[in-house]
Structures are given as structure tokens and as C-alpha cells.
Design goal:
Elements lengths: L1 E8 L3 E8 L2 E8 L16 E3 L5 H7 L5 E7 L4 H16 L4 E7 L5 H6 L6 E6 L2 E7 L4 H11 L7 H14 L3 H14 L4 H13 L3 H10 L8 H17 L4 H10 L4 H13 L3 H14 L7 H13 L4 H14 L2
Parallel strand pairs: 4-6, 5-6
Antiparallel strand pairs: 1-2, 2-3, 5-7, 7-8
């Protein structure tokens, strides 16, 4: 039998103690811990100027790591001045899929001469050390974005997102303690990273540490709830709090067995069953209420069922099953 207790310490740290058999392991998942995954290598600025001498490292060698766009321009070129801000904006928004290197052909005529560049502005995309595509003349923003989409490298993986995915995998596998450590380390790197906030709260919910999960929710900024995962966590916490207030599952079942017409007892049992992750059983009790008395408690059973779906996620098997049963009742 496992006995696990987790503490939400000061300074946003998560300490834990795990006892299994006769052995005990303790640790602290501090938000000052090392990053959960290796940071991406810094490969330099997205936009820079180059020269004949630095063209090889700035373009040829760099294009082996990511797509390099070379903007051939000159100070006297009107269309160049029109293109440059649009091009720089599109490169910035591409977030590393491409980089922009600008070459003044008046100051450095050798490279454009070797490449046969006879008209400017001219933009050439380099990949793996060689030119692969290009265009001449000022272009609208939509065309430049399409050019980047066609030639850009795959976006670099975000190390925090990778770490959060790893932690969520552990949580789904029933290892909330290990997941909690990773979420804590992520929040040290970015205290406003909403997926890690949600993950940390979900770990506490999995460990039935309802008050600590509530502390995480209360600390989340309002804008976090624009994300579906944050709303699902909020719904899950509210359901867990409801379930915690209802008492023992066996007592609720006994109360309903004594009086099968007790709608409130059936409703409370559904919430308690969900708290024990018995989702299909919870659905069945709420569906029974809707069948018998749709208007009970101002359509309370249907509203509660929708809150279940929000908490579980749209693709959860219990949500799919519940929506099918609800549709059958409402539209039969």
C-alpha cells in the first residue's frame, strides 16, 4: 500500500514524501530546480546584416541549421525600403523557422555578382548550404508569408512545452509525484506558463490535495482561463470540492437504495462517483434524473453533466458516451 503526502511550501515549492512498504523517499520539487529539459541552443538573432567576408558563416553554414533568407538591397532602392519592414515582420512572426540576413550590394558586390543578382530587391532562400528558392521585387505580406511557409524549417521544439508533455504523460500514467517535480521546475523557468500551472494543480487533484489545488487555481491570472485546459482544471477542482463535501460513497448509495425516488441523493451520488473517477456510473445517474424529471433543480442534472464533460475533455470516452446518451434522451 502506498501512502503519499504532498506539501505546497512557501516560495512556490512542492515538497513530497512517498512511503512504500518499509522504504521512504523524500524530495522537493522547487521552482528553483534545474530545467526539466535541455534548453534550445541559441543560434543567434533572427535578423542581421552580413558582408562578403561573413557571408559563409552567416548564410552557408547557418543554413544547415535553419532556413536563411538573404535580402539583397541597396540604400537608393525604393522598392527595397518598401519590402524590408514587411519582410522583417514576417520573419519575426515565423519565430525561428527562418532567419533574415541582409546584404548591401553597393558595399558588397561580389556575392550578388557571383549569384547573377541583376535586379533588387531580391530575396533568396538558402537551405543546407545552397539556394533553393527566391523572388524579386516588392511583395505583399501574404506572399512573403506563403514563401516562408513553403521554405521555412520546422519550428524548433519549445523545451518547456516538451517538459510539460513529459509531465502530463507521467500524470496520465498515475505518477503525480514525479509529474509534480517537473511542473515545478518549469514554473521556475517561466512562472506564467499556464500548462505548468494547470499541471501542478492537476497533480494535487490526483493526490486528493484539494486545498492545494485550490491554491494553484487562485494564483492563476485571469487571462489563463482563455485556455481550455485551464477551464477544464477549474471544472475538475469544483467537482472535487463538491464531492469532498458529500461524504462517504457507501452512505450515499445506501440512502438511494432506501429511497430510489430521492433525486437529490441520486444527484449527490453522481458527483461522488465522479470524484472516485467512476465516470460512466456518474453519467448514468444524471441521465436517469433527466429522464424522470428534466426540470428538477432548474435543469440541474443536465447542467451538471455538461460540467462533467468540460472537466473530462471532449474526447474522453465518458464524455463521448455521455453526450450520446444525453442526445438520445433530449431528442427521442
Amino acid at each position: 500500500m502506498n501512502d503519499k503526502s504532498y506539501g505546497y511550501g512557501s516560495g512556490m515549492s512542492a515538497s513530497y514524501t512517498t512511503t512504500q512498504g518499509s522504504g521512504q523517499a523524500t524530495g522537493t520539487a522547487s521552482f528553483g530546480a534545474a530545467p526539466a529539459s535541455k534548453p534550445a541552443q541559441d543560434t543567434g538573432p533572427l535578423i542581421k546584416d552580413t558582408t562578403t567576408q561573413s557571408f559563409m558563416p552567416d548564410v552557408i553554414e547557418a543554413s544547415r541549421e535553419t532556413t536563411i533568407l538573404v535580402d539583397f538591397w541597396a540604400p537608393w532602392c525604393g522598392p527595397c525600403k518598401q519590402l524590408t519592414p514587411i519582410l522583417e515582420k514576417a520573419v519575426t512572426e515565423a519565430k525561428g523557422r527562418v532567419k533574415l540576413v541582409k546584404l548591401n550590394i553597393d558595399d558588397h558586390p561580389e556575392i550578388p555578382g557571383q549569384m547573377g543578382i541583376q535586379s533588387i530587391p531580391a530575396v533568396v532562400a538558402f537551405k543546407d548550404g545552397r539556394p533553393v528558392d527566391g523572388f524579386m521585387g516588392a511583395q505583399p505580406e501574404s506572399q512573403i508569408k506563403a514563401f516562408i511557409d513553403k521554405n521555412g524549417s520546422e519550428p524548433a521544439a519549445d523545451p518547456l512545452e516538451e517538459a510539460a508533455a513529459q509531465a502530463n504523460g507521467l500524470l496520465e500514467e498515475g505518477q503525480p509525484g514525479e509529474a509534480l517535480q517537473i511542473f515545478g521546475a518549469i514554473l521556475q523557468q517561466d512562472p506564467d506558463f499556464v500548462p505548468a500551472m494547470v499541471g501542478l494543480g492537476s497533480c494535487f487533484l490526483a493526490l486528493e490535495e484539494i486545498e492545494r489545488a485550490r491554491g494553484v487555481l487562485d494564483a492563476m491570472p485571469e487571462e489563463a482561463f482563455k485556455q481550455k485546459d485551464a477551464l477544464a482544471f477549474k471544472a475538475s477542482l469544483e467537482l472535487a470540492e463538491q464531492s469532498a463535501d458529500l461524504g462517504d460513497l457507501a452512505d450515499l448509495q445506501a440512502k438511494l437504495d432506501t429511497n430510489p425516488e430521492d433525486t437529490q441523493a441520486r444527484f449527490d451520488l453522481a458527483i461522488a462517483l465522479n470524484g472516485k473517477n467512476k465516470r460512466d456510473e456518474a453519467v448514468d445517474h444524471l441521465i436517469a434524473i433527466i429522464k424522470n424529471d428534466r426540470d428538477w433543480n432548474d435543469d440541474g442534472a443536465r447542467k451538471q453533466l455538461l460540467q462533467f464533460f468540460e472537466s473530462w475533455g471532449v474526447m474522453d470516452p465518458a464524455s463521448v458516451n455521455g453526450r450520446r446518451k444525453l442526445s438520445s434522451v433530449l431528442f427521442s
